[in-house]
Amino acid sequence: DIIPQPLLDQYLSMTDPARAQTVDTEIAKHCAYSLPGVALTLGRQNWHCLKDTYETLASDVQWKVRRTLAFSIHELAVILGDQLTAADLVPIFNGFLKDLDEVRIGVLKHLYDFLKLLHADKRREYLYQLQEFVVTDNSRNWRFRYELAEQLILILELYNPNDVYDYLRHIALTLCSDKVSEVRWISFKLVVAILQKFYTNNANALGLNFINELVVRFRHCSKWVGRQAFAFICQVGMFSLCVSMCTFN
């Protein structure tokens, strides 16, 4: 009743490998690009019509097809709702996390948008996997680490102070020592955001522990770049924004 059945059948047939060889080698990519729009038109009650096609595209041998889906999986999650997302999209999302960097960047750019749609218990499972984003296929791909720091600033609101301290703090410290200055600068903002998270949630002990770690790791660093990092962290506004003068002294 929504769209003609022959039109839907024609769309679903785009994933047929024979069509890619005889019609258009890019046809699967076009299908992947259009899928969120088709899903929105059909509605979540008709997701079963697209589920098999989506899974086929998600395992396509062409990384460009998988990349296209990775960039839009957060939009599809909004269309499908939390239950279908947990059942059908989370497994595919997990697969994208282990894919090539060209695919992983798609989920990374909208990591916050996807995680906020999950239930708290499911969302917490990804705390163990966020560290994996620090490692890339090409270490010169510094924009990947830059994007990670930007996403973590947003993601802080999704987790409690203890989880931030146990998992996200380590990532922030690693990024603050990155070889690329752009990555270090955004990471200094991440450090400030973490401290704000601690002190606005009355987790003062965690905040003080983190400050002491920053002092030991950067202020007393044997390399000048580490001591410079500490000065820049202060410049960003770490202490003035979220630490009392008593603690600062």
From TrEMBL:
Transmembrane segments: none annotated. The keyword Repeat applies. One of its GO terms (molecular function) is protein phosphatase regulator activity. One of its GO terms (cellular component) is cytoplasm. Keywords: Repeat. PANTHER family: SERINE/THREONINE-PROTEIN PHOSPHATASE PP2A 65 KDA REGULATORY SUBUNIT, WW-BINDING DOMAIN-CONTAINING PROTEIN-RELATED. This is PP4R1 phosphatase. It comes from Syrrhaptes paradoxus (Pallas's sandgrouse). The lineage of its organism: Eukaryota, Metazoa, Chordata, Craniata, Vertebrata. The gene is Ppp4r1_2.
